[in-house]
TrEMBL record:
SUPFAM superfamilies: AraD/HMP-PK domain-like. Keywords: Signal. InterPro entries: Aldolase_II/adducin_N (IPR001303), Aldolase_II/adducin_N_sf (IPR036409). Residues 31-203 form the Class II aldolase/adducin N-terminal domain. It comes from Marasmius oreades (fairy-ring Marasmius). Coiled coil: none annotated. Residues 1-20 form the signal peptide. This is Class II aldolase/adducin N-terminal domain-containing protein. It comes from the Eukaryota.
Length: 215
């Protein structure tokens, strides 16, 4: 079910107005982040599984992302502040007294976000989506190339956007969950190294995923 624009606004504003302890910067990026969650849902870029995050404007060593909930349902009360160094949930962004096991479960793929922020200090936002339409491109090894000016972030690299294949990463002891899902720093680091100058996007082979970073 889609959330109407009016519902989106009320979902967003009601909790922001009652809490209010975070800084103005954090409040502003949280509003943008929630708008982004709802717009990406309305445009069907993310379904139940995609996620978007932002770097904490007050602390470059942290990022903000919803706990594991469909983007359409994200509100200020579902936002969590994470430590970039280990993707640990620190506290609810709008209630710092909610910590540890009181924070609802996080997306297992949050290492996509933490490792990209760690590797690329100038990246302020990361989107990860399971986009069926781009699945065949990664499967046959054809990267995307911008065909119109407004698609500039796709880039115009000769071989198209880079393609990440978890099978190309040599597993190590800290990488026990070595599969399509980026659930540990080893795979997250390998993915973050796949980005190339000239393209803010990486296709992920086999996961129908598509990533974009904003600087
Ligand atoms: C923050 O969370 C605590 C613990 O759940 C709760 O008692 C308190 O009312 C919350 N504060 C706000 C402003 O929501
Ligand atoms: C809030 O954002 C402004 C503009 O980006 C920045 O100059 C300022 O340092 C930020 N405040 C904090 C506390 O980080
Ligand atoms: C910034 O975030 C890091 C990682 O969570 C933390 O160790 C550090 O204390 C924070 N800095 C400030 C000034 O809060
Ligand atoms: C952002 O940082 C990465 C890694 O340090 C670098 O390769 C890239 O050129 C930078 N992009 C911009 C626009 O500065």
């Amino acid at each position: 079910m889609k959330v109407s624009a009016l519902e989106t606004i009320s979902l967003l504003l009601a909790p922001v107005l009652v809490s209010g302890s975070p800084s103005q910067n954090v409040t502003q990026v949280s509003i943008d982040l929630l708008d982004a969650n709802h717009i990406l849902h309305l445009l069907e870029v993310v379904d139940a599984y995609g996620h978007i995050s932002v770097r904490n404007p007050d602390n470059e060593s942290q990022f903000i992302m919803s706990f594991a909930i469909a983007p359409a349902s994200a509100t200020s009360q579902t936002l969590v502040t994470y430590d970039i160094s280990n993707a640990t949930p620190l506290h609810l962004t709008f209630n710092e007294s909610v910590v540890g096991e009181d924070i609802p479960p996080s997306f297992s793929e949050r290492f996509i976000h933490s490792q990209i922020y760690a590797a690329q200090p100038n990246v302020t936002s990361v989107i990860h989506s399971h986009t069926i339409e781009v699945l065949p491109f990664a499967a046959v090894g054809v990267g995307l190339r911008a065909q119109i000016g407004s698609a500039g972030s796709i880039g115009t690299l000769t071989n198209g956007t880079p393609i990440f294949d978890f099978n190309s990463v040599v597993p190590d002891d800290s990488d026990q969950l070595h599969d399509l899902f980026i659930r540990n720093p080893v795979l997250g680091d390998a993915l973050s190294r796949t980005f190339e100058d000239g393209s803010d996007i990486v296709l992920m082979k086999g996961l129908s995923s598509y990533l974009e970073c904003f600087e």
